[in-house]
Amino acid sequence: MTNKLISPLSGLRRLVETDQVGPLEHDFLNGKDAIWSPHSKIINVTPGPAFGSELVTQFSSNQTRGMRGPGVANFFTAVRAEYGKLVDMQEGGRALFFTGSGTSATEAAAGALRTPEEAGSDKPAIVTMEIGAFSTAMGNCVENLGRNVIRLKGQIGEDLPYDQCREVLAADTEHTIKMVMAPQNETGAGVTTDPKKIRDLLDELNHPALVCIDGISSIGSMPCSMKEMGIDMLFGCSQKGIMGTPGIGMLSMSDRAVKLVLEHDKQLEEAGIKKGQHYLHLSKMINAMDSLGLHLETPGNYAQFAAALDAIAIEGIDRACERHKDCSEVFRAAVKGAGLELVAKDDSIASNAVTAVKSPEGFGEAKIMEVLNIMYFKHAVEAAAIPGAPDLGWRLCATGGIQPQHALSASIAFLKSVEEAGIPVDAEKGLLAASEAYSNVVKYHRPLPGIDTYGR
Fold first, then answer.
1. What's the mean pLDDT in 59-69?
2. What's the pLDDT tens digit per position in 183-234?
3. Which domains does the chain carry?
4. What is the average pLDDT across 172-188?
């Protein structure tokens, strides 16, 4: 019988009458006394899509603009210019936005700087440095585009294999290697690297290769300056540290990278060689955005992205980076206090965006997933496992709009869930350490301007 409290006008009424509102169809809840929650709010400490900005949430209800209407090109150009300031792009560079995610930006970069000589040659054109699932995916991307790539693989939890890179570049006396690609923050392992070391290595060897960096989980979460770090190509996405919604992959390029991209694509065209890319063709996108200020095809939502940039501007990028560090210190205190270990093998490279936690030996994928299920269904906290290593552990992430309050709540949920799953851990000691870390970093705050807590 229909609950008389549900309005006949409610869409829920039909679901109740047709018996579609019942226990959640999830094996984990079988045999458990699950209760209905009055809300569907969760604390999201996955790497992304991350906690967003309230400004973006409010802006999402605005009417969608056409992609070719009056003033759109000027708006698009202005938003890209503001993003270029955020990443401290070199003068004369370009900030290109692709509809997609960080992968679309990565693939656009990975297809760049082909030369006629590369066709039919077995000489390397690109070097990738891989220390986790996402930098490995970057190498896969390059390889799947048919490029000749040297894939330097380090150990998960360790820094980039700089020594291997030095050997490869020193042996490349013909300078056939055009790009060195690496992550600033390996999202899968919770390790942060220093792109400046790659630039210094190339300068030391007088090698002309471009420094191409995956900033997908670092942009907006930690200091990332193209000028200071010597980055030629930086790829990112809208839904992590930027605090936007998914849909935009960003590729910002130095002036030198722009000139080389245009030059190499012209060489291919004159040689009658098809590049093998259309929408992710960098020269076409550069020319379209320079001449028209518009995309080749339908763009992602610039308005929401602009609102996300506004949120960062109001908070201040330095404070945003500090906030991510504060939250990660709470996570690390909880983990170490409870007797668990980080995946990062040295605290100096432990990420302030992703805290990757090892599961104790003997507690593999099944227990790891049990902990994640308890966190979600009991504590309303969503975390993630470690991709590519299902038996390794968990990730507690401080990306996007997360606050220390969220980090403390997520730490409680994580340690209590680990304890309930039967994994040996000193939860109480970990919670005490997390609480102390929280007390050291929490600050008074002012809500962002916009709709207030009373909906005005």
1. 75
2. 999 999 999 999 999 999 999 999 999 999 999 999 999 999 999 999 999 9
3. 11-50+315-441 (3.90.1150.10), 62-310 (3.40.640.10)
4. 97
Comparison of pLDDT for 205 and 49, the residue scoring more: 205
**What Rg do the C-alpha atoms of the chain give, in angstroms?**
24
* pLDDT higher than 90, residue 237: yes
Cα atoms in the 13 Å half-sphere on the side-chain side of 183 = 31
Q: What is the pTM of this model?
A: 0.93
Give the model's confidence band at 1: pLDDT under 50 very low, under 70 low, under 90 confident, else very high: very low
Give the phi and the psi of residue 9 in degrees, each rounded to 5.
-85, -10
